[in-house]
Specification:
Elements: H1 5-14, H2 46-57, H3 60-67, E1 71-77, E2 85-89, E3 95-96, H4 102-115, H5 122-133, H6 137-147, H7 149-156, E4 164-165, E5 170-171, E6 173-174, E7 194-196, H8 198-209, H9 216-226, H10 234-242, E8 247-255, E9 258-266, E10 272-280, H11 284-301, H12 305-312
Antiparallel strand pairs: 1-2, 1-10, 3-7, 4-5, 6-7, 8-9, 9-10
Helix pairs in contact: 2-11, 4-6, 4-7, 5-6, 10-11
Length: 313
């Protein structure tokens, strides 16, 4: 026991948040009142931004893809609710994102259930779950058919969420059933049927973490649906190896050369963050796997992690 005493004293002196601190032992969503929640775009951190750009561009392939607008990354450090930090590369660039925009269907369904325009049934709750955890296309299509594209769009552009904003490059969009048949309703800016930008997907998770999607109870319900993903590739493949104790809230997408992933990681100490990646490249699956250690290095560089790590050793 004596060998741990210096470490505990060291952590206290450095004001590192340990499990007994004010916020780190609380489950999501955070206990913040609405007036204390700042828009994510106001939380861009210069140091985090600089380090993210530096780390990404050290990889020549990634630097090339970023320059060609074929790779976008968003990162939100949520380890301290009083000092949330945001950084992004190609943040407002909207890309084809395959199944990742099923997040928009999930939100529209939660809003519809709250509004009473959709009646809760075991079948609907099951479809909401498996269209996320298994990325089930038939379940997603059934949910689209139950609500209609106009309802989904109205939720995305709602002033409370603004997850699709034409003034900021668009964002999340669902304009086609996840099926071979069906009319397309492409987004007004890019003409995409299933689109996303990393900034808007980061905002989705950020608002969810703050309990601001529909309301606190609905946010908790959506967090539960997003937890424990059943597809273990991309981000999840890496996180299962390096952070098996962390809770993951996740949605991904793949179609041909388009690879996308998004996750909110809720682990101990510093490992609490949101990361979103959009890639157009045949190696996108591997790039997304490799992205997790890179963003974690970015996060470590912004904290007292290295000092604490040396003390533990």
């Amino acid at each position: 026991m004596r060998k741990y005493v210096p470490l505990l004293l060291f952590l206290i002196l450095l004001n590192v948040r340990v499990s007994t601190s004010k916020n780190t032992d609380r489950e999501l969503p955070y206990y913040l009142t609405a007036e204390k929640i700042r828009p994510l775009r106001q939380l861009v951190n210069k140091n985090l931004q600089k380090e993210l750009e530096k780390q990404l561009k050290q990889n020549k392939t990634w630097a090339r893809l970023i320059g060609k607008k074929k790779m976008a990354v968003g990162l939100v450090d949520i380890s301290d609710s009083s000092n949330i930090k945001f950084a992004r590369v190609n943040g407002d660039m909207m890309m084809y994102a395959a199944s990742l925009p099923k997040l928009a269907i999930l939100l529209a369904a939660a809003q519809s259930l709250e509004d009473g325009t959709l009646q809760e049934t075991p079948e609907i709750l099951h479809d909401m779950r498996i269209m996320i955890s298994r990325s089930d296309n038939e379940a997603a299509t059934r949910m689209i058919d139950r609500m209609g594209f106009e309802k989904i769009e109205s939720v995305l552009i709602d002033d409370r969420y603004e997850l699709y904003d034409p003034q900021r490059g668009g964002g999340l969009w669902v304009g086609k059933r996840y099926a071979k048949k069906g009319k397309r309703y492409p987004d007004p800016l890019m003409g995409l049927s299933h689109g996303a930008s990393v900034t808007q997907v980061c905002r989705f998770y950020y608002l969810l973490a703050m309990g601001q999607l529909v309301n606190r109870q609905c946010s908790i319900q959506m967090l539960d649906i997003l937890s424990d993903p059943e597809i273990h590739h991309k981000f999840v493949n890496t996180l299962n190896n390096i952070a098996p104790e962390a809770k993951l809230y996740r949605k991904s997408g793949t179609w041909r050369n388009w690879h996308s992933d998004s996750v909110m990681v809720w682990g101990p100490l510093w490992r609490r963050y949101i990361v979103v990646g959009l890639i157009e490249d045949k190696q996108g699956e591997q790039i997304l796997r490799d992205l997790i250690p890179t963003v974690e290095e970015v996060l470590k560089s912004q904290s007292n992690y290295k000092i604490v790590e040396r003390q533990i050793k």
